[in-house]
Amino acid sequence: MADKKIKIGIVGVGNCASSLIQGIYHYQNEENLKNAIGLMYQEMGGYKPEDIEVVVAFDIDKRKVGKDVSEAIFSEPNCTTVFCKDVPKTGTKVRMGKVLDGVSQHMKDYEDKYTFSVADEPEPLKEDVVKALKDSGVEILLNYLPVGSEEATKFYAECALEAKVAFINNIPVFIASNPEWAKKFEEKNIPILGDDIKSQVGATIVHRVLTDLFKKRGVKLERTYQLNIGGNTDFLNMLNRTRLASKKESKTEAVQAVTAKRLVNENIYVGPSDYVPWLKDNKVCFIRMEGKLFGDVPMNLELRLSVEDSPNSAGVVIDAIRCAKIALDRGIGGVLYSPSSYFFKHPPKQYTDDEAYKLVEKYIKGEVER
């Protein structure tokens, strides 16, 4: 292995980025790594979490731009759990990013700590971002923009293509699952994973597992809902319903993909529901499933899940990063279908989670190319 470090770039230094970076240093502690609490893989392809290094970062909030990444991840409005206080200086300062549709107008109507005040620095041109990516030596660019940032996501995806940098799309804007975008990465032999990260034990994975259980046990699923509430800026952002189309599609399709028979639209609701400020980064999910058992006898299931939202996704992203690095080491580009199917809600190819897990195992061992 030529370089043991995995050099990453981050677009959007919010709660998810905070949990990811805290995790990189948390697992530098041998005891934490040995216990492997929260990790699906201690090591993957010869890489440990501590091998990940942030070399470039972009944001637009004046409270973060210009700060070292180690400080920016603890700046307001970030509110996720601090489980690793001793994040050292990285030497990487947060750069001014491109605004485009990365901020919803309605967020300016809330109290100060949630108001997005765009930094006074001039927005970068595409060539500026590409140069920053090349100069930093970044290998993999992570998209952590707010839900609904369609144009901003496409801007950074184009920058990744031009800089020949792998792209991990953690949000529900369809890049990896869009054939036109997938072809662009394929033609340049650049790895891409996505779309919309599937948390470790989050609402989507639990809903999918239960739906698959119904199918395998012969229970007819007739209707279901998944309601989610939270108090972080992502939920505040999603109060603007015009930004939710791709998010609802991503979450709904993740469940529909494992049903025995697709439900008609009126019998399935899966999506963000409301914003409760005091919940902060805690996400509360309510799932209800109604169906029929043997002899057409009705049954229903109700579940409540409460989880800290951002750490719930960070371990999955660490594995996605390592899968991207494995592809770079092997000289493989285009959509990484196997990792995408296991780590993301809206991959180009949907499998059950059991099937996707086996495919990831084969990918790590080199038994399947992508």
Structural class based on helices, strands and sheet pairing: alpha/beta
Residue share in helix: 25-40%
Cα gyration radius (Å): 20 Å
Percent of residues in β-strands = 15-25%
Largest sheet: 7 strands, parallel
What's the N-to-C terminus distance?
20 Å
- The low-confidence parts are none
Oligomeric form of this entry? Answer: single chain
Strand tally = 11
Continuous helix count: 12
Shape call: globular
Q: What is the element string, with H for helices and E for strands?
A: EHHEHEHEHEHEHEHHEEEHEHH
* Nearest-integer average pLDDT: 93
Give the strand order of the largest sheet, numbering strands 1, 2, ... along the chain: 3-2-1-4-5-6-11
Structure notes:
The chain is an alpha/beta fold and 370 residues long. The chain has twelve helices and eleven strands. The chain has a seven-stranded parallel sheet with strand order 3-2-1-4-5-6-11, with helices on both faces. Strands 8-7-9-10 form a four-stranded mixed sheet. Strand 4, helix 5 and strand 5 form a beta-alpha-beta unit. The mean pLDDT is 93.
